[in-house]
Amino acid sequence: MKKILLPFLCLSFSSAFSQTLMQYIYSGGLQRDYYVHLPPNFSNSEHLPLVFNLHGSTSNGAEQEYYSRMSVTSDSNNFIVVYPDGIGSEWNVGFNSPFNSGVDDVAFISNLIDTLVQLYNIDLTRVYSCGMSDGGFMSHRLACELENRIVAIVAVAGLPTDSVAFYCTHTRNVPVLQMHGTADPLVPYAGIQSGDTGFYSVEQTIDFWLNKDQCSLVNDTTFLPDINTHDSSTVQKIHYASCGATSEVLFYKIIGGGHSWPNAPLDYIYGPTNRDIDASQEIWNFFKQFSNIAASINELAVNVDLKIYPNPFTTQLKLESSEIIERIELTNVLGEKILEQKVSSNNPTINLPYLTDGVYFVKVEGDGFQQVRKVVK
User: Fold this and answer.
1) What beta strand segments (E) does 261-352 contain?
2) What predicted TM-score, i.e. pTM, was given to this entire model?
3) Domain-by-domain residue ranges, the chain?
4) Which end of the chain, N or C, is less packed with Cβ atoms under 10 Å?
5) pLDDT tens across 163-173, in order?
């Protein structure tokens, strides 16, 4: 994607208006930045849906917010949207060899979900991912490797790499929406077949998800109204609704469209930008149909037999668990690691006499479980 340089404003948390906040956590030993957009009159008493919006190659979260205009959609539909930054303006989408080498962006997104549920009380049953180009590639990877936390995905001008498709551990039917221009010069509609750096064609991608989601080949195909006759493109909507376990596959085939986000504020040199649909609104229309109750049940299950007290605390935290705790990590609200401790006990104690007053997060891990709790000193 062509670079856009623009100023970025971080607004106060108390405003009744919509606001975007720049924050960071540590994941995999790296500082990971992200931008959180909260809709107007946000309150922690609500369980709002969360949408990850992943930028394209050479871009960043702030530019993706401007380019996609999804914060506008968030404001009118009352959901939280997060724009993370990839390391080096890239996502690890599966081109590395060996496959699981390099930056672990899947773990980063999972860790970010853990943080956001504590900070903003997000609805764990309604967490989604979309992205442009490289961010679309990454969303396909999340659908394969984080399918029990990411409910549905949308990829705009992004496709699964050969390696992601080969190693896909998909165990739940994940609803998928693909948007792609037939004249895309950067991520060709026909894909690229070249070993470790290859990726699927659009047609292969649709077939891949039809198979994974146990869909019938029967589809409903319609041409959407050519509202803007000057954008050199039209949209064909191909809908596969007969899939397994409340899933579906939807394809917006942008005939004549280039490498762009439909209705983006800028026209790029990489082919026409379609103006017949607004990608951000169509993405939300797709996402809002789906939830994953199992995600909430899984989170609540590890809450039942874990206690951390006193809260607020002064110099010590005591933990009690029905399962053996193997690792404890303490971070502050910025995601900075304060303590990491390996244990093997049901009731360990953490001594913290040196901490300043404030809010902290305790991550507790054991065999087959992980939980994050907020504590106050």
Assistant:
1) 306-309, 316-321, 325-332, 337-345, 349-351
2) 0.78
3) 19-297, 305-376
4) C
5) 999 999 878 89
